[in-house]
């Protein structure tokens, strides 16, 4: 009987290059041989492996392109696709017309065996991206492994390798004409959106992808670490788990290379390796051994409390395994295992907060005495081991500091109404909070407190304040991508951007905008744009994390139009409005956006009570594949800052708004 599914794999390894200007490498062919062996022995039962390997002189530009089109392009909806490249990488300047694809102004290239000979160009990452998008339109799942320099970003300088290592990078690629691009790329703007593919890259842009003698032979450091992670964790491991394991191995051997995962905000990143099913969801923070200490990937930029008594623990562990936070940096924190726990330095541990000295968000509780007492008791016993809540502290009306946070008013019927510090109601009334209902109310309070904590994030002593601006640009007829130079709109008198529906002969039409991020500074800065909506969701898919070059722009959802419509089921009646807060976080060093993620409070039983949509769910066009790249920042003393813009989508009371 024929096999049910197929794995189409294209493995490319290049040690020897035809161009005299491209240095010889030693470990790329070995990478591919080991990857092939892994696939031959670990392909799932019932899956047929269809393998094509291109090594050295066989891996020409034309051969690679044709193999993607014909071999990988043969995959169907039940099949999986893998493209693995080990070789030199380089960079090129982004054409002005495609500014929105690369906030750094540079794109990445794969150096093929015959690149830079007789006019043969490198293979642009944009060309590879559109080729794989065509494959992904038919295949069930597509994954990419790139073990080359500039595989997740770009820099103009080729960094010298560390002692005993070689660097997989060559000088910047020469300029290209439009005629030299593959046809699929020149018509991409008019093509419909197709599914994404997940990419694992060897290094950030400012770092080299290195190779060295590992296990008695030359290997790419990233390929070696990734295959080691696969052998130790198994193919059921998710991409986030695998990249964390590979990062640990790579960073223990090199101080200049950090593997990366893309796309950051897509569910694809949470799939199992070469699988269209989701892996077990991971915790928002990870604890791992880096060089000489244990650390977690959360810090001051995420709002991690500073002070004695902050602890994290391994989720669902028995007996409990905890570590104490001893040093908080902007993007990470150092921790020390407690209670005799001696974790293996080869493992990574999903962790959550288990203790904080003082929850960051205060709620003043007033009103009916019985309801107030019940709610206060529930908050003070809601944490681990019946301790106080980790996320919110409840204050009686007489307590000092009560007006610095939220306000919960309990009426005679025991129902709770929550308002923010400006007096605006947050969600709908929560019915009876007395007795058993108090636990339900506390769960709501904790969720909203986490949301409020993200909204309140700021760094009062930052030197970067105002370095990056959020620009809201009205979309005009004919606009397909965000304009680079059109001025942004000014906020209204209340400081918010009111995006108004427009009455037409066919009915109410929702507003459409672009969102740009403008780096006005003279340095490269890492940015994440969060959407905080009135269902108390925190989403990072608008701009999930990238470096923006000095003086350059980044664009939300890859420069596509954003249709700020009301949610399905909500008719555009005059006076209806929903509100989003766009929270921009800017830092000198790359940081994880995962700890910010928070589902909508209405995702479960509370959905009917919190029905305002988040901006990401109201996109008129979904972002295309964000390519395989990211960027990074150097060492030093790291700074960070935040900015917030409020968007109000509303149906005006007048038929003819201004």
Overview of the structural elements:
The radius of gyration is 26 Å and the shape is globular. It is of the alpha+beta class. It has eight helices and 33 strands. The longest helix has 19 residues, at 437-455. Mean pLDDT is 84; it is low at 153-160, 189-195 and 604-636. The protein is 15% helix and 29% strand. The strands form eight sheets. It has a six-stranded mixed sheet with strand order 2-1-3-7-9-12, sandwiched between helices. A six-stranded antiparallel β-barrel has the order 13-14-17-16-15-18. Helix 1 packs parallel to helix 5 and helix 7 (369-379) crosses helix 8.
Would you spell out the secondary-structure blueprint of this structure?
Layout: E1 5-13, H1 28-42, E2 47-55, H2 61-71, E3 80-86, E4 89-93, E5 106-110, E6 123-124, H3 125-136, E7 141-147, E8 165-167, H4 183-186, E9 198-201, E10 210-214, E11 217-220, H5 221-233, H6 239-253, E12 260-262, E13 285-290, E14 293-296, E15 311-314, E16 322-328, E17 333-337, E18 348-355, E19 361-367, H7 369-379, E20 392-396, E21 406-410, E22 416-419, H8 437-455, E23 468-474, E24 497-500, E25 502-504, E26 507-509, E27 512-519, E28 525-533, E29 538-548, E30 553-555, E31 562-563, E32 577-587, E33 640-650
